[in-house]
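Exercise 7.
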Amino acid sequence: MKVRLPVRKAILQRRTYEAPAEGRLNKVRLDFNENTSGCGPAAIRALRKLTAQQVAMYPEYAVPTRRIAAYFGIAEHELLLTNGGDDALRVFFDAFVEPSNHVLICEPTFPMYRYYAEIAGARIETLHYGSEMEFPLDKFVSALRKKPAVAFMANPNNPTGTLLPRAAIQKLLMAATRTVVVIDEAYAEFSGVTVLPLIPKYPNLFVTRTFSKAAGLAGLRLGAAMACRESLSLLRRAMPPFPVNIGALVAAEAALRERSSIRNYVKQTREIREWFAGELVRLGVRTFPSAGNFLLADFGVRGPALFKQLASQGILVRERSKDIGPGFVRISIGTAAEMTRLVKVIRKEIRPTFRRGKN
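Solution. The predicted structure, written as tokens, is:
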């Protein structure tokens, strides 16, 4: 039987998103900015205490929402829980973007902004970070005057590590008179910079967060979208009634009660990141300042061979040759032991090329 399915044109014109390769569990996972030391013990204890009755019920959100909102320092009505940070981004297209609209992004950045825009059939205006991975603030302000439906910006940005101060983001908000401005703060714990206090002042400001990074709950999928009450109510209309599972809720609540695990992980990650950057600089590798739990580096012509060698030894990194250039790589900051092992391999592989003068 021949069947012709009525597939949307936007779906046929785009590639499927490439998820991480299977079989990563027992490798050195420095490719997807995960917390490689794992979530805190409180989250595991909470999951083990789940009863059969709880699992059989649809989740209830009032208490978790109140506690998570308190963690972020906002009101309950300013918080919407989502099925991971990706789901928090998707709902902006469901609520605000028509196929005839255009959205604004600055690349290289988190690919899901473009992914969802292409699925929605929206037009995409793309700006670019500079050669030193600096954000084009003035160009972004000018582009906002064209009134895109939604503008996305990660702060800190992934993969560049670039961080904009709050004053610069306020400049963007002032220019976005007809635009939803989404500030993706997936790595805010590592930067210490957030625009959440600006929510009451700017109704066009939306902030997204995730529990996949600092809290180490990537496998449970919990994210959040935040805005003032009136603006967030528009997002709520586009959300299903039960977007977040009970496991994610109880683990997140437990993680927030045991905040020392998150604080310790963030502190250690910052320290290891600076040590690692220094090691690369000593080896003559170009690096870029990062405010996240990762580092962008340029290994030049030596990069492709090095990355293959790392993979052969079970060390996974995120090559960025397609969107930045050959030799560029984003390396997540793992544990001290993982990063020490990585440095030893890099030193062994690239030292000989320096001796021969092939920098």
